[in-house]
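Example 3.2
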Amino acid sequence: MTFVVTEACIRCKYTDCVDVCPVDAFCEGPNFLVIDPDVTPLNAELSREWKPITKTKPALPDAEAWRKIEHKLGELQR
């Protein structure tokens, strides 16, 4: 079941997510469907409390040292 509407949903012609939504939370927007937070009160309450995950965060203390390093992706540890 769909929990979020993403960029992939813009101009999507399929409505499989709408058909299976148990609370009929989807509403039609100008070019895509949206999840109405008023229909899902718990989600609406939580979305007001949670900070946006896409908000720009301050740089880490060592950011300047890493800025000029090429191919740093290979340095990442799992």
